[in-house]
Write a structure and sequence with these properties.
The protein is mainly alpha-helical and 107 residues long. The chain is 65% helix and 0% strand.
Length: 107
């Protein structure tokens, strides 16, 4: 009976180590994703018009046109498989999104 207990304990330890490795992989992937998101936020913030008031910084004019690098950046995000529309910005997309396409086609 003591040997059966040791086997069960060993199997449990192996299972826990496996789960720990899986969790470490998930954490590693999340750290990479957070780094990517921080880089994207910095890029987007760099393209925002600078104002003195924090309240003014949060609101963008509706008639703001995308030009040059900003437009290319959003197009690149869309090509990478992310939404750029206001409904689901930054979320992964599995197929073409009509809202994103309409946003890209605006002049």
């Amino acid at each position: 009976m003591n040997q059966n207990y040791m086997r069960a304990e060993h199997a449990e330890r192996i299972e826990m180590e496996k789960k720990l490795r899986e969790m470490a992989n998930i954490i590693r992937q999340l750290v990479i994703e957070v780094g990517d998101l921080k880089a994207r936020v910095s890029l987007l913030e760099a393209n925002l018009p600078h104002t003195d008031s924090p309240a003014q910084q949060r609101v963008l004019p509706r008639n703001m046109k995308l030009e040059g690098e900003s437009y290319e950046t959003l197009g690149g995000l869309y090509k990478e498989g992310y939404h750029i529309c206001s409904m689901a910005f930054g979320q992964p997309r599995e197929e073409d999104c009509l809202f994103c396409i309409a946003f890209l086609e605006k002049e």
